[in-house]
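Support reply, case 0932

Customer input (verbatim):
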Amino acid sequence: MIQVVHFQRRQRATGNFSIESYFEAIRNLQPQDIAVTKKEVSFFSNGFFKRLLIALEAFFNQKDVNHITGDIHFANLFFKKKRSILTIHDCGALKNKTGWKKQIIKSFWFTLPAKKANYITVNSNFTKQDLLQYISFPEEKIKVIYIFVPQIHQAVPKIFNKAKPTILQLGTAQNKNIARTAQALQGINCRYVIVGTLDQATRNILIDNNIEFENITQALTDSAIARLYQESDMVALVSTLEGFGMPIVEANTTGRVVITSNTSSMPEIAGNAACLVNPFDVEDIRRGFLKLIEDDAYRAQLITNGFENAKRFHQQTIAHQYFDLYRTVATA
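Our regenerated output:
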């Protein structure tokens, strides 16, 4: 029996939508020859001392295969290299940093953790190529394993509301590009449902552009998120940067049209199953929204393409790629 441990960050009260629930689903599919357990570290990732304690705690909880599932990359600093797997979801932490701050993040979240990893997994080819700009690592040992769609997302037909579509936006971080999206929606009769905490500056932009919006800030269950997809007419992910872009695939699975960006990982994940726009061009974003609302044939084709695209992200297929990697590491 191969003993695998998933090392996960300590969750904050505000919650995080993806990493924890995703790897919980992986554990629920473990085969008979692999036993995967979770180790949520005892400390929040704040300051040098607590991060050192996280790395020491991880060292004392090693098993046959030790998998850092994201965010706390530095937790592997005292690991046995050949038994270590590191998952890096994106390189966004380096994009807007300069000087000594960028060097610290690069060293402790990328360069040093990579030196202590036998394999690195990433969730898209875009992230793989982006990562290779920052670290020196054997390219063949960076494994692209896509994120699978949780089984709670199922196809639910809905008549598209052309008069006043509901547009779903998941996430409010700066890269989600809500300010430009709001400007693009000015004058378009719609209901904009935004999940995540909005800062006052973004609220002001929504108000100034006369956007009817609903802001959902409480933590949501997976079933509640699935209902939001089902109740929407389209999903917006017009981000400036994404390591993967899960809302694209979740919308495809549900049977909702998607408007997303023509940059970073999003074209790779969307394929021919989304309306691609330039996230830095408000007029191009606006044209995308109008085409989705007005062109019935285009919208229907995207939904059909979406069901086909979602097959690439089947839960069992993705989970077994991790299990095969665990067997490779355990027998190295």
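We compared this against your earlier run and they match. Two observations from our side: The first strand starts at residue 2 and ends at 8. Residues 166-313 form a domain with the Rossmann fold fold (CATH 3.40.50.2000). Please reopen the case if you see a mismatch on your end.
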